[in-house]
Amino acid sequence: MKREDINYFAQKATFEEVEKLYKKIDANYNIKQLTAPTQQTLLVPVIDPVSNKQFYSGEVLVTSTIVQLEDEKGWSMVMDDYSQLSLYIAVLDAAFAKNIYKDEIEKLINNTKINLENQQKILNKKVNSTKVNFDLL
C-alpha cells in the first residue's frame, strides 16, 4: 500500500472506523495541528475529447488539514465540508509515515478497497443486465 492511498480510501471508509483509529492514536501520541481544517475550492480540469484541449468545468469544495505527529507531518484533502474527517485522515497519514498503527491503517484501507470493489461489481452486474443484443433485431 502507498501512502497516497490513505487520503482516497479513508474518505470511503465509515466515519466510525476512521474516528476509532484516530482516537487510539490521539490517546497515545502528541498531535499538533499545523493548519486547522480549512475549506477551499479547487478547479476541476477536463479534457475536451474533440479538440483534446484542457478546460476547467467548475469548482469543487474541499477541506484540507496539515498536522504534525511527533516529527512527521500528515496531510489530507477531503471532498466537501468535513472538518473532523479531514483532521482524522491527516493524523492517519502522519501515523502511517511514522509507522504508528501502520498495520491497522493498512487493514482499514484494504478492507475499504475490497468493499468498494464489491460494490462496483454489484453495480456492474446491474448495468450489464440491461444490455441489449441488437443482433436479434
User: What is the helix/strand order?
Assistant: HHEEEHH
Share of residues in helices: 40-55%
Radius of gyration: 19 Å
> Could you say which overall geometry the principal axes of the C-alpha atoms support?
globular
How much of the sequence is in beta strands? 25-35%
The overall average pLDDT, rounded, is 94
Summarize this, please?
The chain has four helices and three strands.
Q: What would you note in describing this structure?
A:
With 137 residues, this protein is α+β, with helices and mostly antiparallel strands. The protein is 48% helix and 30% strand. It has four helices and three strands, in the order ααβββαα. The chain has helices at residues 3-12, 15-28, 83-97, 102-128; strands spanning 31-47, 54-69, 72-79. The mean pLDDT is 94.
Q: Mind sketching the topology for me?
A:
Layout: H1 3-12, H2 15-28, E1 31-47, E2 54-69, E3 72-79, H3 83-97, H4 102-128
Antiparallel strand pairs: 1-2, 2-3
Helix pairs in contact: 1-3, 1-4, 2-3
Question: What descriptive keywords fit this protein?
Answer:
137 residues, alpha+beta
